Every structure is written in structure tokens, then in C-alpha cells.
Amino acid sequence: MKFIILPLISLLVSLSAYSQIFYKIEGNGLKEPSYLFGTHHLAPTSILDSYPSLPQALEETKAVVGEIDMTASQMEMAMAMQPYMMAPADSTLTALLTVEELADLNKKFEPYAPMPGITLEHLGTMRPMVISAMVSLGEMQKSLPGFDPNAQLDASFQLQAKSEGKEIIPLETADMQARLLYTFTPIKKQLADLKELLEKPEELVENCGKLNKAYLEGDLNTLLALTEGEDSDPAFMEALLTLRNRNWMKSIPDIINSRPSLIAVGALHLAGDEGLVNQLRKAGYTVTAIK
């Protein structure tokens, strides 16, 4: 389910090459080292305590690089994302579902409504994936110990850097992410995913628990294998990981060559032949795992 579990990529990765989430970047003319840390949306920030060399890495760096600037105005981010979250007039829930189907979904959605009395008719102008994200968030808060949507790893790095007067460098914008996440998948497929989620929310909890365990163990290979069962759309996977990695690599060398930086992005962006670890090595850098 794309809205909270990243879709899969082909598991063409050796069993040991990408089994870490924290790396040091050196060589290729760098005067000072930079660092690469793979994050995970469901992981508690307490995982940072498992890496005793991380505080020193943060102290050495002058900038934190992330997917987007999470210290920016939340209102501005929401406004930038909103156009991509809305469904076309002919593809709203009321247009796609019969009265009976909508009533059935409403019963299943009721426990996840943001406020008592809110039904799918009130949210019908939103794309189904937006509603799926809402359901997933509610299920995670209820079922996954330690999950706090207001305490994300990516944000924690950026907030600490900002408090110390360091630079925050986003690799893309919020609207770029929203366009990919909410418009790439056809609405009818999004609706089918929403129906499946409301029918079997326990499967989401089980899968997310396994994903979290793999991440906490620094096991990207298992993380990739688990995502393989969630989505088999290679076009979406290429857009989500491969193409974004290639685009980021157009900026990352200039960033780390001009100032020592900590790059904190989703863990799956680190793995595979097209992952950032391998791409940085191909570019001539020495990338060493920090256990």
C-alpha cells in the first residue's frame, strides 16, 4: 500500500551489501566527510540512540539534506499539496460508487473518521489514496507501539540542525512528492486499495510491524523483500525510487563538495544498484557502513 508502505523494487541486491542504514562518505576530493542515513516513517526516534557516532557526525556537518524541507510552514506545504489530493469531478467517491457501496464503506470507515459524524461523502472530493493514508495513520497509532506521527526521523534531523543554525537543503518540494504519490496511480486502483484496506486493516498492521522490525535491525534486504508483496507496479517503483535517486544525484555531489552534510532520506533510497550508496560509489566516493 503506497500511502504508508513504500512499493517494492526487484530484489537484485546481495545479501550483505546493503544491510546498514548509516554510512560515511569520503574521498573523491572531499575535504571533510559527509554522512548518509536511511530513515523510516514508522520507526521511533529512539533508534538514533543505537548509533553512538551519530552525534559526532551531526556536529561535524554544516547542513542536513532531506527529501523536503520539513521545517517549512506546514500551511504552505499543505496548500502546495492540496491540488494533487483532490479528485477530478468525474472521479469522486460518489461518482465511482453506488449508494449501497458507499454505505458499506462508510460503516468500515467510521472508526477512522477524523471527527465524529464525518463520512466518506464529506471527503468524497479527495483522491482515495488520501483517505487510505488517513485510515493507515489511525491504524498505526492504535496498533504500533511507539509510533508517533509527530516525531519523525527526517524532521528530527532537520529540527536539530535548524536549532543550531545549520542549513536545511531539500532535494525536492512537497508538491513534487504529492504529484507522484497521489496522481501516479489511477484513481480506480486507488479505490480498490482503499476497499482492501478497510476490509482487512489487520494485514496493514502485520506488514508494518514486519517492516519496522526489519528497519530497526538495519536490514534493508528484508525491508525490500517485504515491500515486494505490497505492490508490483514497476513503473511506479521506478518513479518513486530510481528516477528520484538519479535526480538527487545531480545535486548531491555539489552539496557535499561544498560543505560537509548529513543526508537523511528514506531507507529504500539507499539500496540496490540504483540506490544512493551504489550511485555515490560509482561517482568515485568511498561509502563505508557505520554499524
Your description of this structure?
This protein is of the alpha/beta class and 291 residues long. It has 13 helices and six strands. The protein has helices at residues 54-60, 74-85, 93-96, 99-109, 128-143, 153-163, 174-183, 187-199, 201-216, 220-228, 234-248, 252-258, 276-282; strands spanning 22-26, 34-39, 63-66, 167-170, 261-266, 286-289. It has a six-stranded mixed β-sheet with strand order 4-3-5-2-1-6, sandwiched between helices. A hairpin with a 7-residue loop joins strand 1 and strand 2 (34-39). It is elongated and about 65 Å long. Residues 1-19 have low confidence and may be disordered.
Number of H/I helices = 13
Number of strands: 6
Proportion of residues in helical segments: 40-55%
What is the CA-atom radius of gyration, in angstroms? Answer: 20 Å
Identify low-pLDDT runs: 1-19
SSE pattern, N- to C-terminal: EEHEHHHHHEHHHHHHEHE
For the biggest β-sheet, the strand order reads: 4-3-5-2-1-6
Alpha-carbon distance between the two ends:
30 Å
- Class from secondary-structure proportions: alpha/beta
- DSSP strand (E) fraction? 5-15%
How is the secondary structure organized here?
Layout lengths: L21 E5 L7 E6 L14 H7 L2 E4 L7 H12 L7 H4 L2 H11 L18 H16 L9 H11 L3 E4 L3 H10 L3 H13 L1 H16 L3 H9 L5 H15 L3 H7 L2 E6 L9 H7 L3 E4 L2
Parallel strand pairs: 2-5, 3-4, 3-5
Antiparallel strand pairs: 1-2, 1-6
Helix pairs in contact: 2-7, 5-8, 5-9, 9-10
Features:
single chain; 291 residues; alpha/beta; 6-stranded mixed β-sheet; 47% helix; elongated; disordered N terminus
Question: Would you kindly provide a brief summary of this structure?
Answer:
By secondary structure, the protein is α/β, with parallel strands linked by helices.
